[in-house]
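User: I'll paste a sequence; please echo it back and then give the predicted structure.

Assistant: Echoing your sequence first, then the prediction.
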Amino acid sequence: MRAGRLLTFAMMLIATVAVRAADDISVQVDPHADFSRFSTFAIRGTKINSPRPELDNPLFVKKLNTTVRTALGTRGLKEAADQPDLLVNIVLSGEDVSTTQRGAIRGAGPMPLMYTEGTLTIELSRPGDPAPVWRGVYRDDEKTGSKLMAKLPDDARKLIDRYPKR
């Protein structure tokens, strides 16, 4: 009987972790934009809104920018310092979440649940136009801030993979 309860608890815990660990991708595209006309880009800025020192550091920003540059290159765009067709804005917000979840075993109280949540937003817009022609948002959560930091460059690549290829 006890082994059955323990197995049930383990299954519920695994299901909870699997649901929490799911990533969320959202991409919006301007339906009137002709993406075949865009051939160059420039990264305008990268903004980090996080108290996590792993995320708010210049080396991480450099790695994230390099990943975005490389990913846009694979989509047929080239970086240009003068008169780019698209300006790239990157915003990352991250926060620690501490909450509780209902215990899987009957009678067991709430269980603590702590993780770091990050939201990466990449916007591409025409110079002089505040509205983006392409906007991608990637939400990810990991057990620790350092794990989130390690995954975010790959998350940025997955996001840029949804940009229309030239």
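DSSP finds three helices and six strands in the chain. Confidence is low (pLDDT under 50) at residues 4-13, 15-20.
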